[in-house]
Write a structure and sequence with these properties.
With 104 residues, the chain is mostly helical. The chain has helices spanning 2-17, 32-43, 72-91, 100-103.
Length: 104
């Protein structure tokens, strides 16, 4: 649990540094950090269990897609979609509260 929290905290702190907290027309691309540390260690192992098209959290607005069997352009596209979902969720905050990702 502590490791999950640290990875998500690092991700939430890293996003503003790359400009994910600003609404820009140029899309952000998932980096090796996101793919290896956030997606590989937390997203795919924990979040994906419920946050998929048929999971318990399918109505949450935080929907992720499996990448385990994908290759090439489809894998890159799915990583980009998952990154966008994480970035969107990391931006959502109520005044005076921490990121919704960290609340989980």
């Amino acid at each position: 649990m502590r490791r999950t929290f640290l990875v998500l905290l690092t991700f939430c702190l890293w996003l503003p540094l790359v400009g994910a907290d600003r609404d820009k027309s140029a899309p952000l691309e998932p980096s090796a950090f996101f793919i290896d540390e956030v997606w590989g260690k937390v997203g795919e192992l924990s979040c994906l269990k419920c946050h998929n098209f048929s999971g318990e959290a399918k109505d949450s607005g935080f929907i992720l897609q499996e990448t385990i069997l994908l290759e090439g352009a489809k894998l890159q596209s799915t990583h980009a979609d998952n990154f966008k979902a994480f970035a969107k969720m990391a931006r959502k905050r109520k005044a005076g509260q921490q990121s919704r990702l960290l609340l989980k």
